[in-house]
Design brief:
The structure holds two protein chains of two kinds.
Chain A: E1 3-7, H1 10-13, H2 17-29, E2 32-37, H3 42-54, E3 63-68, H4 77-90, E4 96-101, E5 105-110, E6 115-119
Parallel strand pairs in A: 1-2
Antiparallel strand pairs in A: 2-4, 3-4, 5-6
Chain B: H1 2-21, E1 24-28, H2 35-47, E2 65-73, E3 80-87, H3 98-101, H4 107-127, E4 133-139, H5 147-158, E5 163-168, H6 177-183, E6 189-191, H7 200-210
Parallel strand pairs in B: 1-3, 1-4, 4-5, 5-6
Antiparallel strand pairs in B: 2-3
Classes of the chains: A alpha+beta, B alpha/beta.
Chain lengths: 126, 212
């Protein structure tokens, strides 16, 4: 059974960077897939990877991570301007982040505007 | 007093000169992308010696490796660039010792390798701040959209550290340079084969642009 926990951005907005990483990692370490509305800052993403590495042990092998940006600022002309405007307005609330524990999530493929999450197949022996 | 002034001038100018030679060029990227193979190629070409060991098993480089004062010259011989080359462990979000067992490693060695690899990733992330320029080495046969790649590159951009994306293993049939370029359209992408030296001379020319 796979458990998905949806976290609205409001739940982490008032937390410090350390607090955000702690909250998200704790959920992942409970073998739940985290679906965060919004995204962490680039520094926080790096810190998440660093903290994950510090906590790897027999039970916790790490995470799979993917971030989908709602408003990509590539492209040209009006579309680019519009995306940049909404990206500025929403900041880190735009898009969403998937954090899956490596014990459950085999891989996350991002290609490039969709995310495919492949879970591990644990068949029980009778 | 004259001795003091002389000493001051000497330390001022030597710090200026040494700061030019102290440019740190980092090799970053996911595990097994060919960072150490490229580091060895650069060191072999300009110093006549290799830098580290390579292996088909991921996380072969588990510590920061530095080669100081590598001096390269441009094709026309008019420009010279001196830098310290920093080869870093591949950055990953998960490490499972069981992955190493598949290569015939013992349980004990696999666990030891996994432990060293996690420490290596932590060190690689800590060293990001120290870099003056970075070559992000990606395996051109693999999916470039991995979050690790995007996070590293985004982090370097946020720190205003110049980046050149190197799509390695372009000698392989599965290599897809266009996919790497499409994944990172805001960056210069150079396709090379570090193993066979393909396009590495173009890479050296690009380093002069990167170092400006």
């Amino acid at each position: 059974m796979v458990t998905l926990q949806i976290i609205p951005y409001a739940e982490i907005e008032s937390l410090t960077s350390v607090g955000r990483i702690r909250k998200l990692l704790n959920i992942a370490k409970q073998n739940k897939i985290v679906l965060l509305q919004g995204r962490l800052s680039k520094d926080e993403e790096t810190e998440l990877i660093k903290t994950t590495m510090e906590e790897i042990n027999k039970e916790f092998k790490g995470i799979e991570l993917a971030v989908l940006d709602s408003f990509k600022t590539e492209g040209s002309g009006f579309d680019k301007m519009k995306n940049e405007f909404f990206s500025f307005l929403l900041g880190n609330r735009a898009g969403f982040t998937v954090i899956g524990p490596a014990s459950i999530v085999k891989s996350i493929k991002k290609n490039p505007n969709k995310i495919e999450l492949l879970t591990k197949d644990k068949r029980s022996r009778k | 007093m004259i001795t003091t002034i002389k000493g001051w001038f000497s330390s001022f100018f030597s710090s200026f000169l040494s700061s030019k030679g102290d440019m740190k060029l980092g090799l970053y990227g996911p595990p097994n992308s060919g960072k150490t193979t490229l580091a060895n190629k650069i060191c072999k070409d300009w110093l006549g010696q290799e830098m580290g060991t390579v292996s088909p098993i991921a996380h072969e480089t588990r510590e920061i490796q530095i080669k100081e004062q590598i001096s390269i010259k441009s094709k026309n011989g008019k420009k010279e660039l001196i830098f310290n080359l920093v080869d870093t462990p591949g950055i990953a979000t998960k490490i499972d010792y069981e992955d190493f067992l598949k290569f015939g490693m013992s349980d004990r060695n696999a666990k030891k390798r996994a432990k060293e690899a996690t420490k290596g990733v932590i060190d690689a992330i800590k060293w990001l701040d120290e870099m003056d320029a970075v070559l992000v080495v990606l395996d051109a046969t693999q999916d470039p959209y991995s979050q690790v790649n995007i996070t590293i590159i985004g982090n370097l951009a946020a720190r205003n550290i110049p980046v050149l994306i190197v799509a390695n293993k372009c000698d392989l049939k599965k290599a897809n340079m266009k996919k790497v370029q499409a994944a990172f359209p805001q960056y210069d992408v150079l396709g090379i084969s570090a193993k066979y030296g393909r396009n590495v001379k173009d890479l050296y020319e690009q380093l002069f642009k990167l170092a400006r």
